[in-house]
Every structure is written in structure tokens, then in C-alpha cells.
Design goal:
The chain is of the alpha/beta class. Helices cover 38% and strands 18% of the residues. The structure holds flavin-adenine dinucleotide. Flavin-adenine dinucleotide is lined by residues 17-23, 43-46, 53-57, 123, 144-145, 193, 214-216, 220, 388-389, 456-458, 466, 468-469, 472, 645. Keywords: Monooxygenase, Oxidoreductase.
């Protein structure tokens, strides 16, 4: 940190800290519901967004409904880019043998019962979809908030904008990378989150009347300006990486060429071992041999300890390796994107002679930062980078990959599976400890205090079971509704916490509710649309000429909505657009399922089935039946999703 300066003194109405799904969705929700001219800025620590960040996010029914509350076309826009897995396959992680219980997912059942079945989108696609809804320049990149402090109301008389009418404000100290501000290079792949660019940092101070902390589970804002809460280490480490099919093929071919060259050299030089020169050969994973496994590219593959004590949940098992494609085989240059993640408990790392936390990265070791504190259940690592989704830089990635490979080799993960990791470009490998909030961190006042509110993982980080992003989207939809009802301020934030805490607490911690019941409750929810029908009709006018006409309400819907708006029937216009958006989403999922050969034709699911808003009210018995029907496929798909995040 070289310089200290302050911003021009203007006080923001809202500072959103963190540009992940929760922060972006909250920003969209607030801009939809706050008065025009509200000064809102998102501060994101990462230098930019990269399309290769993250793995897949399962979009459950609650998540798509929350997205639809932010913007009616967003769910089907995202589903256009989603993947539907047809199977999940479990293998013994030493013998490689397919384990019993591997099964196809009942997509048709889900579509028939709920009109939807969970789809997976790239995490970065979800983030980009939300980002595109914000006005240009809303996100300032390379801005890491290091401290958040409330300045008492009395002190605001001296506030530079001269407005003391609305109480105190917050001072955010931000470590800003020079040149990082307002870089709008989303998805350019030009940079990676957390990348150490070696550039100069300056400190800036930003004032804001309201703060939305969306800075993830190691939330700095929560630690410095909130209840001081920090998550607990779960005794588990996770790696993940991604590569394209062509990178995998290329690495396998290069390794084969290197092996051949080494063999030739060894033959020429008697007595030298071929393996010593060539290292371990890479092999194409057997599960991707589509001649033998036609659905191999449409499945989730999971390797974990088999045997009588087999644990079905890969994250509950002491170790696990998960691998899946997240774009369709014919997608874009480079072929499909393949994502893997690996989990291991500390004893598994110890057996492999791998320390956790890892030694500091080269820049820190050479004086750039303090080594992280030892991790234990009682004392989580002091270095926030450790609990966050780090990696991205080549230096970190090389170390992370070597550590992952050492652990995998030590317990005997089959060589063809290890090849997936070994072929991954190191800059796309990350490693991090897994942390989680305790139930005590969900007590009133912990998520909302005055004009500071925490959303997403900053408020409630549970196990990575695939629900985190969906609940983060719900947070935003409900926050918008509360602000619409109470106006921006403490009352809205308190109402938001009162609405959110029981739902999240039950899902994360309430053991008296059976898992199936929890998943059922998760889906049966609805959100008030935050958009105005006129906005949707205006936006549609801009899209008409584009190549995606299905994003635009058809003329009869647009005309009906416009007529309702003209007659002052806002509710009628909203309903017309919601019904259209729901049917467009349903159609997008069915098309995807047919394309992916998950169902043979649209007729396999009931084409007349209508969306939730269109269904006639069901009696209690019918409701119970519907819920039970709905839960089975959703639970099955959810179990697979839990292995993905
Ligand atoms: C790089 C990355 C990849 C992920 N990939 C997946 C995935 O593939 N599947 C999945 O299910 N979940 C993934 N997650 C987690 C998932 O996004 C969250 O569990 C959930 O969506 C809640 O989102 P969030 O916005 O609350 O938190 P996060 O997604 O963690 O976002 C927090 C954001 O805040 C930024 N930030 C952190 N500290 C600061 C600070 N001090 N100042 C400013 N900005 C800060 C981070 O850079 C990040 O962009 C990923 C998270 C990250 C950061």
C-alpha cells in the first residue's frame, strides 16, 4: 500500500461489497426498487471477471424463481447455456469399478411434476448474466475492502456532501489496485480473480450510507463492521480445476510423444529407465470413451471410497474426486469444458505428506505477506485468501496442482482419472480450505445491523451442497421486496433478516426436518417481481432485432401487457409477462432435455402442464401429492448437484 487518498467526498447511497452472485443480484434488486438516481456502487476485490472461474451451479426451482423476480427473461437466457446431466456415476476410487447405485436422473419426472428440472450453468455464466443487468460502470474491480466502520450520526454534520438528514454513514477502507477500477472486461479471460499482478495498490476511503456485505464466507465487512463472525474450518480441503476437451487431448498426445521420445532415448542409452525420463504417461479417462459409454459426456462421474462403509455423499466421504462436462460436446472452440473437483480430509493430506495450510505463495514468501496461521477447527486460517476461492495465478496454481496430484497418487486414484487433473493448465487450478458458519452465527442482529446488511455467503455459509448460490439469489429477491415495502434503510434490512433467518436456519441446521422435506420446502417458494412491466416491454423492443427472439414476449403477450399498463392494471401486465416467462423457461428446459437425449420428445413430459402461476388452486391432498411427486426427482438431482459445487 503506497498511497492514501480519499474519494471526492461524495457519499454513496449504497456500497455493495463483493461482486459475486449475491452482490450482483442484490445490486440489481436495489436498483429495481430504490428511487431513480440512487448512487450505488459494487466493489469487487478481483481484478476482473474471467469466464474460466468457478465450476457449475445447479439452478434449483427457488433459484430460477428468484432470478425471474430480478428479470423475467434471465432464467431462460441462462438455461440456454445450461447443461442437463443424464446420469451420475459413482466409481470406487482405487479399483475404478462402477459402484452399484449409479443411476439416471429422472428428468422427465421433474419436468412433469414441477415444470422444471435442475439445470447446471457455469458459475461465471450466472455471474455474467447478473452483471449484464447492471448499468455500465456499476462494478469497480480490483477494490478489496479491508475495513468497514460506522461513523456515528452526529459526525455526519461534517460529511462532505452536507447532508446529515439520513443519519450516519460507513467508511470503507479499500485497497485498490491501480488501474483496476471499473474494468468492464467481463468474461474476457484476461485476468483471474485473486491474481497477484504485482501492481501498486493505493488506499481509498469510500463513504456510504448503506452497506450490503456480499463478500463471501470470509467476509471482511462482517469481521470489521459487523458482528465479527468468522467461519469454522471443516477439516477438509478442496481443489478444483477446468480444462477443455482439446486441452485434455493435447496433453495426452504430448505425453504420448514425450514417452515415445524417452523410450527411443532410453533404447539408445542402455540401462536408463524409460519412466525416469518420461514421467507418468497421461491417459484419456475411460469414462469419456463415448464408444463404450455413450452418455459419458453427459454424466457426472464421482470417485470415492467404495466398500461396505461407502458414504454416498462425496463431501462427507474422507476423499473424493468429481468430474463433469459443463458445456455441451459441440460447444464452441476448444470443445466441451471439463470441470473437476477433489476433496480430502486432513488425515488424507497427512498420509500423503502434504501440509495444510500450504506454504505461502512465492510473492508472500519473498516478503509480500505473512504466512497463514495453522488451520484447525478452533482457529481458522488468519489469511482470508485461504478460505476464499483463491488460485488463478500461475504460481498458486502450480503449487495447488502439485499438491492435489500428490494426494491423489498417495491414495491410489486411478491413473486415467489423475490424468484429468494433470492435464489442467495450472492457472486454472485452485485450492482452498472448506469453511462453514456455525448456527450461533444465525442469531438476530448478525445479518442486519442498522444500515449494514449481509447477504449470500457473508451471512450464511453452509456446506457446499449446491444451494449457496440459489439462496444468495433468494436473498437478493427478498431484499428488493423489503426495500420496496419499507424504503432503503434499517427497517427494510431488519425485515429482510426476519424473513430470511428462519428459512436459512431450518435448511442449514434444523436436524428435525428430514432432508427430503428440506428440499421440498426449498422449492416451494415464490418471489414478488421487482421489475416493472414497462421496463420489460422497453427492453424487448431493443432485442427484437437480435437473433434470440425467444427472449422477447410474443406480440399477443406484449400487446396484452401494454394494454394492461395503459389501463393502470400493473398486476395484470406483470402476470401476463410472468406467465410467458415461465412457459419460455419450461420450453427452454424441454428443448435442452430433447437435445441432450435425456427425453425422446417434448411429448414425454406433459405439454399442457402449466407454470405455478397458471395452475388452478390445488386442495391440501392434491398439494401434498404434488409436493411428494416433485420431491423425488428434485432430491435425486440435488444429490448429484451437491457433488458439483
Ligand atoms: C471464484 C469463485 C468461484 C465459485 N465457483 C462456484 C461454483 O462453481 N459452484 C458453486 O456452487 N459455487 C461457487 N462459488 C461459491 C458461490 O458463489 C457461493 O457459495 C454463493 O453463490 C454465494 O455467493 P456470494 O456472492 O455470497 O459469495 P462468493 O461467490 O464467494 O462471492 C464473493 C465475492 O466477493 C469478493 N470479495 C471477497 N472479499 C472481498 C473484499 N474484502 N472486498 C471486495 N470484494 C471481496 C470475491 O472476490 C467474490 O467475487 C464460487 C465462488 C467464487 C468466489
Amino acid at each position: 500500500m503506497r498511497n492514501t487518498s480519499s474519494e471526492d467526498g461524495a457519499v454513496l447511497d449504497v456500497a455493495v461489497v463483493g461482486g459475486g452472485p449475491a452482490g450482483l443480484a442484490a445490486a440489481v434488486a436495489l436498483l429495481r426498487t430504490c428511487p431513480p438516481g440512487t448512487r450505488l456502487q459494487v466493489f469487487e476485490a478481483g481484478a476482473t471477471y474471467s469466464a474460466s472461474q468457478g465450476a457449475a451451479v445447479g439452478l434449483f426451482l427457488n433459484g430460477v424463481k428468484a432470478l425471474g423476480a430480478l428479470e423475467p427473461t434471465l432464467p431462460h437466457r441462462l438455461i440456454d447455456e445450461a447443461v442437463l446431466f443424464s446420469h451420475w456415476r459413482d466409481y470406487d476410487d482405487v479399483s475404478g469399478e462402477l459402484l452399484p447405485g449409479s443411476m439416471p436422473l429422472d428428468r422427465a419426472g421433474g419436468l412433469r411434476a414441477a415444470g422444471y428440472t435442475p439445470c447446471h450453468v457455469q458459475w461465471s455464466t450466472l455471474r455474467a448474466g447478473l452483471y449484464e443487468l447492471l448499468p455500465p460502470g456499476s462494478v469497480q474491480f480490483g477494490c478489496k475492502v479491508v475495513n468497514c466502520e460506522e461513523v456515528a450520526a452526529a459526525a455526519t454534520t461534517a460529511a462532505a456532501d452536507g447532508d446529515s438528514s439520513s443519519g450516519g454513514y460507513y467508511e470503507l477502507r479499500i485497497a485498490r489496485r491501480r488501474g483496476g477500477a471499473a474494468a468492464d472486461a467481463v468474461g474476457s479471460g484476461a485476468g483471474q480473480q485473486g491474481e497477484e499482478e504485482g501492481g501498486e495498490e493505493e488506499e481509498v476511503v469510500v463513504r456510504a450510507r448503506h452497506v450490503v456485505a456480499a463478500d463471501g464466507y470470509f467476509s471482511r465487512v462482517r469481521r470489521t463492521g459487523g458482528d465479527g463472525g468468522r467461519p469454522t474450518f471443516r477439516g477438509k480441503v478442496r481443489w478444483f480445476g477446468s480444462l477443455t476437451t482439446s486441452e485434455l487431448m493435447g496433453a495426452v498426445a504430448a505425453a504420448a510423444a514425450a514417452a515415445a521420445a524417452a523410450a527411443a532415448a532410453a533404447a539408445a542409452k542402455e540401462g536408463e529407465q524409460q519412466e525416469a525420463a518420461a514421467g507418468e504417461a497421461l491417459r484419456l479417462p475411460e469414462c469419456l470413451d463415448t464408444a463404450r459409454h455413450p452418455d459419458g459426456m453427459r454424466s457426472v462421474h464421482r470417485w470415492m471410497p467404495g466398500g461396505p462403509n461407502r458414504v454416498l455423499d462425496v463431501q462427507a466421504a474422507p476423499r473424493g474426486f468429481v468430474f463433469y462436462p459443463i458445456s455441451l460436446p459441440d460447444a464452441g472452440p476448444g470443445g466441451s469444458r471439463l470441470v473437476w473437483s477433489m476433496y480430502a480430509d486432513l488425515p488424507v493430506l497427512q498420509a500423503a505428506g502434504v501440509d495444510f495450510p500450504p506454504p505461502p505463495p512465492p510473492s508472500a514468501a519473498s516478503g509480500g505477506g505473512a504466512p497463514p496461521a495453522a488451520a484447525s477447527a478452533d482457529a481458522p486460517a488468519a489469511d482470508d485468501a485461504h478460505g476464499a476461492h483463491v488460485g488463478g495465478s500461475r504460481a498458486r496454481g502450480v503449487a495447488a496442482l502439485q499438491r492435489a496430484l500428490a494426494v491423489a497418487a498417495s491414495y491410489g486414484l486411478p491413473a486415467d482419472v489423475r490424468s484429468i487433473a494433470a492435464a489442467t493448465p495450472p492457472e486454472r487450478v485452485s485450492e482452498f480450505g472448506m469453511y462453514q458458519h456455525t448456527p450461533e452465527m444465525s442469531t438476530p442482529g448478525a445479518w442486519a445491523r442498522g444500515r449494514l446488511v449481509h447477504v449470500g455467503d457473508a451471512a450464511h455459509a453452509g456446506p457446499p451442497d449446491g444451494t449457496g448460490a440459489n439462496f444468495a439469489l433468494e436473498d437478493a429477491a427478498v431484499l428488493g421486496a423489503c426495500v420496496r415495502q419499507h424504503g432503503l434503510g434499517p427497517e427494510a434490512f431488519a425485515a429482510w433478516e426476519a424473513a430470511r433467518m428462519p428459512r436459512l436456519f431450518d435448511h442449514l441446521y434444523n436436524k428435525s426436518i428430514a432432508p427430503g422435506e428440506k428440499w421440498g420446502r426449498m422449492q416451494t417458494v415464490d418471489f414478488e417481481p421487482l421489475w416493472r412491466p414497462e421496463q420489460v416491454l422497453e427492453a424487448a423492443a431493443d432485442i427484437t432485432a437480435s437473433s434470440r427472439p425467444h427472449l422477447v414476449p410474443p406480440p399477443q403477450v406484449a400487446e396484452a401487457a401494454a394494454r394492461a399498463v395503459a389501463a393502470g392494471d400493473n398486476a395484470g401486465a406483470t402476470q401476463a409477462i410472468r406467465e410467458w416467462a415461465w412457459s419460455a423457461l419450461r420450453r427452454a428446459v424441454v428443448v435442452k432435455a430433447v437435445d441432450a437425449r435425456i427425453i425422446a420428445s417434448a411429448a414425454e413430459v406433459d405439454p399442457a402442464a402449466a407454470g405455478p402461476q397458471q395452475q388452478p388452486a390445488a386442495g391440501p391432498q392434491q398439494q401434498a401429492q404434488q409436493q411428494a411427486q416433485q420431491q423425488l426427482p428434485v432430491v435425486a438431482a440435488t444429490a448429484a448437484a451437491s457433488a458439483l459445487s
